[in-house]
Amino acid sequence: MKTKVLASCSLAVALASASFGQIAIDGVLDAAYGNPKVAQSVPTQFGNAPGGLNGWADGSELDGAWIKVDADAGFLYLFFSGNLQSNFNKLEVFIDTVPGEGQNILRDNNPEVDFAALDRLGEDTANGILGLKFDEGFAPDFFLTTTIGDTSGEGTACTQFANIAQLLTLGAGVGAYIGNGLFADPIAGSNLLDDQVYGCQLSINNSNAGGVGGLGDEGASEDGCGVTTGIEMKIPLVLTGWDGTAPIKVCAFVNGQGHDYASNQFLSPLPAATGNLGGDGLGGYIGGSRAALRIDLATIAGDQFFSSDGPDACQGGGGGGCAGDLDASGTVDAGDIGSLLLLFGSSDAAGDLDASGTVDAGDIGSLLLLFGDCD
Question: Which residue among 49, 105, 247, 276 sits deepest, i.e. has the most Cβ atoms within 10 Å of its Cβ?
């Protein structure tokens, strides 16, 4: 991947003029995404978020992830259901698009973005300290970090911010701040970060009150399936260096305000009941401007990434081949609406697709988003 790819703004903006009409970047899941590629199985230790407000959340959780590669229009769509706490905690997204290239261990000479984010995530060669190390088989070529918070201090200016950077095999490359998206109404409104230089779009809807609960809370849910609001992004594929054929792999996790204290909310998930990784992988804080995140994901059971060609998650939700397939027909269709109506008012987990605790009108909306073949 060449530095000039990210710097070629005119090409990215030209791609941004194309549209994938089935997907609107608004933080609400669209049917065009299909089924999730991964679902959360670890209750959050970064605060549960029961508030239900579009722009404001009191905790962070990553309930599931969807990926859509629109090669014809030239865009990568990512949807992370859940919440991102409105205190400037970070969602870190690493994308592996080029086989044999990228950084399995984050280097110490990456672009400067978001107040030394990659410095704090990368190695400290001067002191012989490795930075963030990913699982075997994952070497990201592209980085996006986004955050949300109230810039007014009065709860009236909730705003999303984002930065992007290349992760070239030998480091260097280009990074950029790509703008902000303000909530006109932090309670019920929506936001859009619409980058006119590189062609990226992001949005967030923090209204989820279902999904996984808080780690250690009595009866906390360990199932992220059924959540249909969260953090959404549209990225021109040209920025990522994608070769046009390789599966696209993604590792995403919630990090602290200074990019230096990792939560336990990773996708793909950490092992069951894992607490926050912190800076040292054990929940401890290191801090500092270099290698503040000394975590080796290769030493943790399972893969903490998912792939565009991987199997669908949430299989069997409702007894069928996928979430919403209540009549086990292999397709989410009109028959499942009838099945859902029979469950109305109950707390049946099969029909409670939005994890609200009750089968109600919200679950009809969730079912419509899932319409189509389970495959």
Answer: 49
Tokens of 262: 């990792």
First-residue to last-residue Cα distance in the chain: 33
User: Left, alpha or beta for 272 (phi > 0: left; psi -120 to 50: alpha)?
Assistant: beta
Please report, for the chain, the start and end positions of each structural domain, with discontinuous segments joined by +.
Answer: 3-307, 317-373
pLDDT in the model for residue 2 = 42
Mean pLDDT of 364-372: 81
Give the pTM: 0.83
Superfamily holding 317-373: Dockerin domain (1.10.1330.10)
- Ranges of H-type helices in the chain: 3-7, 9-16, 117-121, 237-240, 334-342, 361-369
Q: What is the mean pLDDT of residues 248-276?
A: 97
Alpha-carbon Rg of the chain, whole angstroms?
A: 20
Q: Where are the alpha helices (DSSP H) in 147-200?
A: none
Residue 10 has pLDDT above 80, yes or no: no
Q: Which residues contact 138 (CB under 8 A, 6 or more apart)?
A: 94, 96, 104, 249, 251, 303, 305
Is the alpha carbon torsion for 316, 319, 321, 325 positive or negative?
negative
What does the DSSP 8-state code read for residue 129? B
Q: How far apart are CA 215 and CA 228, in angstroms?
A: 21
Per-residue pLDDT, 155: 65
Other Cβ atoms less than 10 A from the Cβ of 273: the count is 12
pLDDT class for 375, splitting at 50, 70, 90?
Answer: low
Q: How many helices (H) and strands (E) does the chain have?
A: 6, 15
The per-residue pLDDT for range 265-286, each reduced to its tens digit, is 999 999 999 999 999 999 999 9
